[in-house]
Amino acid sequence: MQITDITVFSYKARYNDGVYTIIRTDSTIEGWSETAPLGSDYLPSSFTGEIAALKEIGPKIIGLDPRSIASVNAVMDKVMLSGMAAKSVIDLACWDILGKSVDLPTHVLLGGCLTDEPPAFSVIGFGDLPTVVHKAQTELDKGVIAMQLKVGDDPLVDARRVKAIRKILPESMKVWADANASWNLDQALVFARALGQEITIPLEQPCRSLTDCAEVGRRTGLPIILDECVFTMADLMAAHAAGVTGVNIKLSRVGGLTKARILRDAAVGLEMMVNVDDTWGCALTTAQNLQLAASTRPDRLRAVDLFAEWTNPLISEIPRMQSNGRITPVSLPGNGFGSVNIEHLGEPLFQITA
Ligand SMILES: [Mg+2]
């Protein structure tokens, strides 16, 4: 089997530009995948940059066997060091093809279904206390069992908000705060002190650098999860050595499912907690995330991000969160979504052919 062409679509998702890529092969099998870089000041990645990367990488993988995914990755890495979201969307389409070619879901090919029903997490953003408490209560009523509380603004205001939300949630709720690398060390320490001793929640990427994040953990005793500063295995190893206890793995940040799987396996081997996530996305991102989450040990998987629960339009039929706050992966071959409704996508942005 050979890759014959790559077609790239774009559509306006609710908050961001999304990219859909389809890889066709010389068989009847097509691979679909999705990536959506967040704002350009979030990671060393941008929508226009990833489009440019796709145009540069695409011609080099035409003619390769999409089922030899490590070979495809090796070629992509030879073309450029960056372009992680571009590489991710190609890598994910190859996994979709591999699964369809052997009639197995991707999570089986990743080692099997270790977590039948991964817990989904809800994100509670910023807002005044009554608004965010109401939002958390609404999510709780829906059956959510894991919540990520956004922080990273004024540390005193953030601490008040986190305390108010934590108070209404049952002890069994998995709760953690995510600053998205927005604080410096000074602000992160103020937040932790204002939070007080009575609340213990893991803190995700309080500062930009590993050094500062690890220092927050050392001084406060709070478990630290890293997200925005883990790209490679070396980053993960350094994080673990510095006392970091968890990692949020975003497929498009690390270059795709092939690399995410290796990081996930290493993190689990190091007894770290794993969140499965992506920068943004919609239906296909949700299904893709679910493949990695389902193949992760349940005692090491904190939760998985289900973008389909809060973005639209959904371009394909995918599993949705159940009333127990969990999600069951489907047994469809490939990345676990039905046929893609191309009407949502409009005309392709461009196509790369042999
Ligand atoms: Mg995060």
Keywords:
TIM Barrel; 18% strand; alpha/beta; 354 residues; Enolase-like, domain 1; single chain; binds magnesium ion; 12 helices; 12 strands; 2 domains; eight-stranded parallel beta barrel
Query: Which ligands appear in the coordinates?
Result: magnesium ion
CATH class of the largest domain: Alpha Beta
Q: What is the number of strand segments? A: 12
Question: Could you name the CATH homologous superfamily of the largest domain?
Answer: Enolase-like C-terminal domain
What's the SSE pattern?
Answer: EEEHHHHEHEHEHEHEHEHHEHEE
Family: Belongs to the mandelate racemase/muconate lactonizing enzyme family.
Organism: Penicillium steckii
GO molecular function, one term: metal ion binding
Cofactor: Mg(2+)
Task: Describe the protein in words.
Keywords: Metal-binding. Its cofactor is Mg(2+). It holds the Pfam family MR_MLE_N. The chain is α/β, with parallel strands linked by helices. It folds into two domains: 3-103 and 339-353, Enolase-like, domain 1; 109-309, Enolase-like C-terminal domain (TIM Barrel). Helix content is 39%, strand content 18%. It has helices at 47-61, 69-79, 84-102, 106-109, 129-142, 155-168, 185-195, 210-220, 233-241, 251-254, 257-269, 283-294, and strands spanning 3-12, 17-25, 30-35, 120-124, 146-150, 174-178, 203-204, 224-226, 246-250, 273-277, 301-305, 350-353. It has an eight-stranded parallel β-barrel with strand order 4-5-6-7-8-9-10-11, surrounded by six helices. The longest helix has 19 residues, at 84-102. It is globular, with a radius of gyration of 20 Å. Magnesium ion binds at residues 178, 180, 204-205, 227, 248.
